[in-house]
Amino acid sequence: MSDSSARALRVTVTIGTAPQRMLELASPVLCGSGRAADVRVIDPGVAPLMLRLTREGDRVVAIAAAPGVTVDGVPAAVDQPVVVTGKAIQVGPARLVVAPWSQAPDADAARTDSLARELMRDLLGDQSPPPPELVIEGGPAAGQRLALPGVGARVVIGRGDSGWVVLDPDLSRSHAVIEHRADGAWLRDLESKNGTRVNGVLAPIAEPGVVLSEGAIITLGKTTIRYRDPAAAALGGAAAMLVADTHTKTTGAAIPVDVPPRWPIAVAAVVAAAAFALVIVLLAGG
Q1: Which residue from 54, 74, 76 is spatially nearest to 65, judged by alpha carbons?
Q2: Which pTM does this prediction carry?
Q3: Is the Cβ–Cβ distance between 139 and 223 less than 8 Å?
Q4: 51-56 and 29-32 beta bridge pairing
Q5: Helix %, strand %, coil % for the chain, to 5?
Q6: Tell me: the pLDDT tens digits for 109-148?
Q7: Pair type for strands 164-165 and 154-158
């Protein structure tokens, strides 16, 4: 087993009644509401850093960085290591189950942001933003668009024999594929004649491919496609409200929050629901 494989963790995340999301992440895994977290949960009861998960051989050890973490229903003492392999860990509204994993994951900032957007959809439930969308901005099929199906879906892009037919003579019949995984949308080239680029960089042929960040530009043939994820705006709004709420509680002074106008009701619903959960379980912010 390679050194990177020996540090890999499989994390199963469940929020409410949303489907489980199974992730492969590199140890250590940080959980919290902050930008540095690998599993980012935007919630007033979740500190920027709540939990650190580390693989030690065939077991997983957790260290709570702030009050409010429970393991199998028992509050975890801050800064005290506890073995959590296969146990239920509660971090705010998120339930995590962690186990060692035998493959080396590919973790980066873009993937972490993508995962945060998917978890935001779980938090919002019926009020979640529309699904990610592919919009053709240049080329023979300019103006064409496609809403990306839900998690588990696979869309092949090409000029024929594809799930999304784009009439560009410079495309292969099956040119590229986008897979909507638990941690976001991943693209890879299908050994096309002219290749596929994401933000100017050649996309890989090998799995898992490259994760698509909000606003990413996909270039294939004469066609330019932009990847749009409305959850990015909702995530930014919720994060801004969380920062403002924390600042107000700490200093007693309010700060202005610039929330995108499309999502104030949805974001407010998330914060209100999370605040209610906060009262029930007496979570303490970090």
Answers
A1: 76
A2: 0.61
A3: yes
A4: antiparallel
A5: 20, 35, 45
A6: 677 777 777 777 777 777 777 889 999 999 999 999 999 9
A7: parallel
